[in-house]
Write a structure and sequence with these properties.
Porin
Length: 211
Amino acid sequence: MKFGHLKMAAAAVALAGLPAVATAQAKVPPSHQMGFYIGAGGGLSTADFDNASFAPPPGTGRTSDDTDLSGKGFVGYRFHKHFGVEGGYYYLGKFSNNFAGPGGIGTVTNTVDAWVLDAVGYLPINENFSFIGRLGAVNGEIDTQLVGTVPSNLAPISKKSTNFTWGLGAQLDIDNRWALRAEYENFGSFGDSLTGKLRASMWSGSAIIKF
């Protein structure tokens, strides 16, 4: 009988503690919340062309279109209030160089996309706002298309490369379910002497849903 009474008392204590546990979990600030999340965003990408790769022939002029709309989708897991991991696909845009002059005319178009894997750091400022930073690796591909007769040093081919990537931004956690981000990300250099070389970066805004 005494043993049965002890079990009943232990169960009563455990049940009495459940509301306190639930209350403690509910009080976790949104900016500290851990777990899985998915997100998607878009923005503006910029290409910093290597001028030697796209040098025009003598007497030929060159103009460049070095910005384009871009987008990304990503999945992440935050295992600590200050740290997480994230991976995703990025379309970094289509950029062009146009040539015209006595030596001929031509257009070179470079399309860049990438797969990214990052370690993400969070610095919560209050219950709903954090600064974030990222450092990781990017496996990207540049695809070059040519129209016209110049320049003659490039070829219509694709080239894959792996670089380091880094970024800085801020996150607004609306609640424990939704968040918004604004970020700058730098993806390093893409291409070679045949595709043309460029460095790509991206300013973006994203929406996140947390699980």
